[in-house]
Input
Amino acid sequence: MIYNSTTGKFVMWMHKENGTDYSQSRAAVAVSDTVDGDYTWRGSFRPPSGTTSRDMTLFKDDDGTAYQITFAAGNADLHVYKLTADYTGYDTLVANPWPGNYRESPALFKRDGVYFMLTSGTSGWNPNQQKYATATSLAGPWTAMADVGDATAYGSQTAFVLPVQGTAGTSYLYLGDRWGNSMGGTVNDSQYVWLPLTFPTRTTMNLPWYPQTAIDTAAGTVTGVDGGPYYSLIAQHSGKCLDVANASTADGAYVNQYHCTTGTNQQWRFQDRPGGYYSLVARHSGKCLDVANASTADGTRLIQWPCGTGTNQQFQRPAV
Output
């Protein structure tokens, strides 16, 4: 949804289907005088090229021109369309930067004169590697896609990037969907993942993990916070602590029992999962306790691994 300051209308674009499959793949538009008011349906349609429109986002540039960014041709292509002056229809196709690349869930924002396009792969409900590209013009040239975040975007899929503007400047907040279906639940069990985006250079972007995110809307700051509380997990029979061996931060590092210390490799945070389960997140690495290879065999090693949505990273804590 975007606001048209010329017409005074809030304009909502949607992905329309028949409720059964993706055979329609149409865009739809509705408008309202107020953001929370009654919306007037303006119809559904496909882009003027006749191709499809699925996952989409809207972007309003500094000059007031609005664009729809949508995946087409069965998610093979990403199309950037300029919209009409009233934002309710298509004007022209501006770019098709990565034909045949098969991505979805686009988010577009502009920072310091550089456009950033963030997308996900196509793996249904299951999270995957998010990638981004940059350009100084929406028409391109655009860079090749580069990885950002970990291999699953910390168990999420790109939904939007929200600029937070204030007295100290503008920060950028990543909003990701952690789909309930990827965690053994339903779509109603889905969660949001909010994380700060950081920018090492004008044209590069990082998506680091933090247990908590602090947002100051007055100052315009988005800051990662080392959350808590953290716990030591002590074996009753030995009095020793659950320990990531050698305080390693590497994927696949072994998790053992070891005499208790003050090391952060023995400190764990319980992160809620559906159905009364928890993931255990190591403080020193931000990675999760993981049953290696999702094995169900007795004696399988425990390791640390980037947090995902697999049930081999989900544990209960029943009373004994």
